Amino acid sequence: MIDSLELITQELHRLEETKTYKYETALQGPQGGVVKVGGKEIVMLASNNYLGLSNHPAIKKAAIAGIKKYGYGVASVRFLCGTQEIHYKLEKKISKFVGCEDTILFSSCFSANEGFFGSLINEKLGFENYKDVLYSDKLNHASIIDGQRLCKSEAVDKKIYNHADMVDLERQLEEDKNKEYRFRIIATDGVFSMEGDLAPLRNIVELAQKYNAIVFVDDSHAIGVCGKTGRGTPEASGTLGKIDVLTGTLGKAIGGAAGGYISGKREMIAYLRQKSRPYTFSNSLPPSIIFGAMTAFDLLSKDRSVVKRLHGNTAYFRTEIKKLGFTILEGDHPIVPIMLGEAAVAQDMSAALLKAGVFIKGLWFPVVPRGEARLRAQISAALSKKDIDRALGAFERVGKKMKVI
Ligand SMILES: *Cc1c(COP(=O)(O)O)cnc(C)c1O
Question: What spacing in Å lies between the alpha carbon of 342 and ligand 1's midpoint?
Answer without folding.
Answer: 27
